[in-house]
Write a structure and sequence with these properties.
By secondary structure, the chain is an alpha/beta fold. Helix content is about 55%, strand content about 10%. The protein contains nine helices and five strands; from the N terminus they run ααββαβαβαβαααα. Strands 1, 2, 3, 4 and 5 form a five-stranded mixed beta sheet that branches. The longest helix is centred in the last third of the chain and has 26 residues, at about 160-185.
Length: about 240
């Protein structure tokens, strides 16, 4: 990244992050609802540039939380808010540090949940260009792949409406139960009867997505494509 000069313009940052959504998330099938949200205009990406005075950072969590609330109120159909923090030229700024940014994610989450009156519920998770990929010395796992998938050109707090995820989680539960009953039915009618009476636990949607993503890009050509596309985006951001 150039050591001097103004911060990159919003148009460039938006274009790079649009590439991440299209080339990585959508084209590689990493999120079950990303394409639909984008095509229906239910995604917003407000940008935050580092304040000129470091003491202003203290007000950032409340400011970001208020932005999520305002967008949600103004656009009731909105499903995803991507709070994007444009990395400043100064490498010493805390946004460059993965752990410091994770603290910001927690602070924004706390500030949003503390708002009165409470707004629409959102689940929030951090993405960061400094996240490390899986440890090559250890056997690959779905969970180990997650940090690599969350390497965005700039730090991002992904805010997804809770009711959207809850709905998808319920659909996943129905599908999982149907697969379970189908498997038991093949074993015989007595197993089918037991399956119909069984109480199935709610599968974790994040675990289902992690397993799917691992099958898609955990190894082989899919993994190579994933890493090539992420590295290309990070290189483009460094040259911005």
């Amino acid at each position: 990244m150039p050591a001097q000069g103004p911060d990159p313009p919003e148009t460039l940052i938006q274009a790079l992050h649009d590439r991440y959504l299209l080339e990585v998330v959508e084209d590689l099938g990493l999120c079950p609802f990303a394409r639909r949200c984008r095509e229906q205009g239910r995604v917003a990406r407000p940008l935050f540039y580092a304040p000129d005075h470091p003491e202003a950072d203290a007000a950032l969590p409340a400011l970001a939380a208020a932005r999520v609330a305002a967008l949600s109120e103004a656009q009731p159909e909105l499903e995803v808010v991507l709070l994007t923090f444009v990395l400043p030229r100064a490498a010493a700024h805390p946004w460059h540090d993965v752990d410091a940014f994770e603290e910001l994610v927690r602070a924004v989450r706390d500030a949003y949940e503390a708002r009165t009156p409470p707004g629409r519920r959102f689940y929030m998770v951090g993405f960061h260009p400094g996240l490390k990929g899986p440890d090559a010395r250890r056997p690959p796992t779905p969970d180990g792949l997650v940090p690599l998938l969350r390497r965005t050109p700039d730090p991002v707090i992904q805010c997804i409406r809770a009711d959207l995820l809850d709905h998808i989680r319920k659909q996943a539960q129905v599908a999982a139960n149907a697969r379970f009953i189908a498997e038991m039915t093949r074993l015989g009618p007595e197993y089918a009867a037991l399956a119909s009476q069984a109480i199935q636990s709610d599968p974790e949607l994040s675990a289902d997505i992690a397993r799917h993503n691992f099958e898609q890009v955990g190894a082989g050509p899919g993994r190579a494509t994933l890493e090539q596309r992420i590295q290309a985006l990070l290189a483009a951001r460094a040259d911005a």
